[in-house]
Amino acid sequence: MTAMHCHFTGRNFISKSLSTFLPLLSIVQTQAMAVTIHNALPSLNALKSKSIIRNRPESRRVSANSVRCCQVATSDKQSITVSNGNDSLEICRVLNGMWQTSGGWGRIDRDDAVDAMLRYADAGLTTFDMADHYGPAEDLYGIFINRVRRERPPEFLDKVRGLTKWVPPPVKMTSSIVRESIDVSRRRMDVPCLDMLQFHWWDYSNPGYLDALNHLTDLKEEGKIKTVALTNFDTERLRIILENGIPVVSNQVQHSVVDMRPQQKMAELCQLTGVKLITYGTVMGGLLSEKFLDTNLSIPFAGPPLNTPSLQKYKRVQRPSIYY
Length: 324
Hints:
Helix content is 30%, strand content 18%. With 324 residues, it is an alpha/beta fold. The chain has a single domain, classed as NADP-dependent oxidoreductase domain (TIM Barrel, Alpha-Beta Barrel). The two termini are 16 Å apart.
């Protein structure tokens, strides 16, 4: 893994929003190339109110030369470029997560949410992470990107990235199902090409995830997706995907100083193949902040209320039962 150095152009923004968490981000930097912050940053409160025919490589065992993914840090250390063959994408090392738009955090005011996204982008945090099932997240990004097109110079637009996820039910993955789903995200985000499509699969006993990823690779070659990636895949399935010659560039998984499951097996495979880890839950929804210092979370009502889905989720991380 490549170290993650957090350096931003908006100095005041850091002191108000990220100063508490930067030491924690430094601790996990040796395992992740980028982290996703969903609802730990105060100024995101507004988001609470987030056919081409080709020859495929034959299946093969993973070796050090199996996948030619790489990353190159830019000189200012604020962004990183992930690449696989001819595919490349420059993203920020800290991503703006939009999970909090999916419900459970209260009513979302559309205009306030988009204003907040613009403030983040102006501060140098120009990469946004969302999903097809995060409520109106993709729609908000579509409104946001159109405001960027109207109100910011072209060179600013070139820095903005929208990373989304596709989380389908484990049904038969036909080309038409995959294409229609990706077209929906493209329309909602109002972009001709998705910067990154991160794929999730619920049931590993159903090998249809390989069909889906092959169809996604076809769409990439058609120019509808720039990079294909994974989210929440375990080490065994990641190895199978790579052995089938599918060019994924990253896998987004949960990782923090409390939850270090990816270090058991996933990190070793990623180091071997060049696939990069994007991590979420790095500050556990805010649990790893001064607000919760000296709080015994096992005692009801002993500290600040765990009144968001993320705080409740990451409280359970103390006893994780699933291993990567």
